[in-house]
Design brief:
single chain, alpha/beta, Rossmann fold, 2 domains, five-stranded parallel sheet, 16 helices, elongated, disordered C terminus, binds fe (ii) ion
Length: 395
Amino acid sequence: MEVKTESINTALAPRGPVLVKSPAEPQGLARWTGGLSRISAASTWESALEDALDAPTILIVDGLELNRRLLKGILKATNYKILEAARPSEAFAMLESEKIDLVMADLVMSEMSGIEFCGMLKADRRTQLIPILMTTGVQGVENEVAGLESGADEFLIRPLKPSLVRVRVRTMLRNKALIDSLEEAETILFALAQAVEHRDRYTGQHCERLAAYGMGLARALGLSKADQLTLFRGGYLHDIGKISIPDSILFKRGLLTDQEWEVMRQHTVRGEEICRPMKSLAPVLPIIRSHHERWDGTGYPDGLRGEEIPLLARIMQVADIYDALTTARPYKPAFSHDQAISMMQEEAKRGWRDPELVPLFAEIAHPLQTADPTPWRESAEMQESLENMRRHISR
Ligand SMILES: [Fe+2]
């Protein structure tokens, strides 16, 4: 039986540029045979983020070379990139040219006070989200209060305790990574993606389920946490391009005309265009563009074939089809797991789906769909992360 999603129509759109494959793209799934044992491995949102990010950059602003050297010594064993500035003017120049994740500034400096420096960083939209750890040898709670009021996020008084400095730095960098991961525009996009799905009352929690299926399959394959995070985002964003499809087509009862299919297929390309300006979403773009390609090259928008189709897009496609089959839609009932898998295997035989991904998905999808709590919910941290994401979306 043919799955009734917008992927049914096989007429091809003009072939566009072939996207660069993910670095994790394999030559065959067999090389991950050990990956199945990792299905239930604990995986947290935060550690996935940390893995996905480059080494954080810390800027130390202090007029005394001895103090800068001391801080560098304390952070020596870590994986941070450390920059130094002796004066605020030098610091501002570095903030212009480098992506700084944390500023460590002394309260007393030349050119201006540490409090003024801090206030300037927090007043500038480009630097206001950079956390500031202020240090000083000047005793007195009034200094601490003034520093924190000027926008410093933490305040430490010398003599510094190395272990305390390292813990504070790590915590502040982790918070910065979370902020980076959900930059304002991205949060709006996630909200839009949810709005698109919620307009169709039949799809319900479709995005959440896709995110869970995608991540489950990624873990089964032993993919990196960065890839899992990409699939999580892809679960929400893969159909964001539908926002540009007229309601008369998107919600049409009955068959679409060839012309309407032409418009519908554009949601892949439009979605990529919408998300392309956001650097942090770059890994998700291949999922958005290529989730309707087919293994035999009859999909859209580029007619990619086999492993030309980015792996994460193939994973999202399998999850998408399974979810479409196992939930009720106006034109079909909800099929059972076994029925859905046999239909997908049929499609794999026909040459439409990745022949190795479908049976692997069959192994993991059943517990994902039916168990309560589902395996991906075994990780309390992951569940909390998903809740956080939902809170961000509903704000
Ligand atoms: Fe789609």
